[in-house]
Amino acid sequence: MSSVISSLAEIISFIILIAAAVAAIELYLWSHFKYHNKKLILYSLGIFFSIAFAFVFKLSGFFSVKVFSLFLIWELFLIYASKNLLKGKKYLPYLLAAPAFLGLAALLMYPFIFQVYLSFHDLKLTTIMKWKETGELPFAGIKQYIAVFTVPPLAETGFFKLLWRTLAWTFVNVFFHVLGGFILALMLSEVKAFKGIYRTLLVVPWAMPQVVAVLAMRGEFHSQYGFVNVMIKKALAIFPWLASLGITPVNWLSDYPLLTCVIINIWLGIPFMTVIILGGLQSISKSYYDAASIDGAGYFQKLYYITMPLIKPVLMPAVTLGTVWTFNNINVIYLVTGQAGGTEQADILVSALYKAAFTYNRYSYSAAFAMVIFAILFSISVSYSKFFAEKKEGKT
């Protein structure tokens, strides 16, 4: 009982701390916006908040000259913006958005900036103690970026082999996600009875926690007791001639780890794409199909000339998101192939990045590796968006 009370006390204290931080941020910004036209009060606030900032960070142990200098620069900018840009008008949106923006900055922007910093320095096991003691790291320039392309991140597999494997992994998965999702969405759009039950059952693999779903499917590929090999054995018992075609039980996890991961990931991804495409199909007016029926169009003509063009605006963001998620999907690889170690036969870029950072402890190398992956994904996303935009405008 005491442990429950202590846990509740920690939660409540955390909530109070967050509320106090939000209130402090709101008061800080409001006071600047409110007294924008009173120079004496405005500059007094700047001095007061600078002293308060230094005092609070000194107590917390995070104070440094660099941090304080950055705060002073920000304070001068805020005073200038209050006096010359906002001038006390329409500052409520900034007050409302500030806590969320700062939270996202702490969770997303700071790690990203720190990762860029690491990629131009040399952090590894031999330099980590020096960094801990002095806060300084050896500057490496673009050495880490060159190493990404010349030094294999794993024991045997190099960057370019991993890149082509990742592109193939992404293309195959997204292709079958879209194809399977499209077929199932078309089928569900024609179902009249028990439509809600079918949709619920279809979404189960996607709605289930991915760890549970992947580990459950991993068990189905067990060499002796897995569902796949059990069904192959039963089929061979009924149709012995299948053995002459080379159909036998397979050690999926050891002999074909990447193929196993692809099958599992396709099974996991189809429901999401089905839901997205089904929503797009329901937004298409029935009048188009009625007019096409009057003109004598068949099912496949309606599919090609009506459904496909009108579903493209829905497919574009879905395919882009699916590509990014699949390209970065370490969960399936990590869980199917044996967590941090495992085989290199199934590794893609992100799983190799994970091993380089947390198995081989090459932190700056991994930071540069991550930036390269980010650049690849950014290029793919921009290319997708441009391609679909040109298709929409009829340029290609």
Quick take:
This protein is mainly alpha-helical.
Outline the biggest β-sheet: none
| Secondary structure tally, helices | 17
The protein's oligomeric status is: single chain
* Termini gap: 68 Å
What is the CATH architecture annotation of the largest domain? Orthogonal Bundle
Strand content: under 5%
Structural class: mainly alpha
* Overall mean confidence score, pLDDT: 82
Shape: globular
Determine the CATH topology of the largest domain. MetI-like fold
CATH class of the largest domain: Mainly Alpha
Q: Roughly how much helix do the residues carry, as a percent range?
A: over 70%
Integer-rounded radius of gyration: 28 Å
Element-by-element helix/strand order: HHHHHHHHHHHHHHHHH
- Estimate nothing, just give the exact number of structural domains: 2
Low-pLDDT stretches: none
- How many β-strands, per DSSP? 0
CATH superfamily of the largest domain: MetI-like
Describe this structure in words.
This protein has 2 domains: 2-88, no CATH class; 151-361, MetI-like (MetI-like fold, Orthogonal Bundle). The chain starts with a helix and ends with a helix. α2 packs antiparallel against α3 (65-86). The protein is mainly alpha-helical. The protein has helices at residues 2-34, 39-60, 65-86, 92-119, 128-134, 143-150, 159-190, 195-207, 210-220, 227-238, 252-255, 257-282, 286-294, 299-327, 330-336, 349-358, 363-393. It is built from 17 helices and no strands. 77% of the residues lie in helices and 0% in strands.
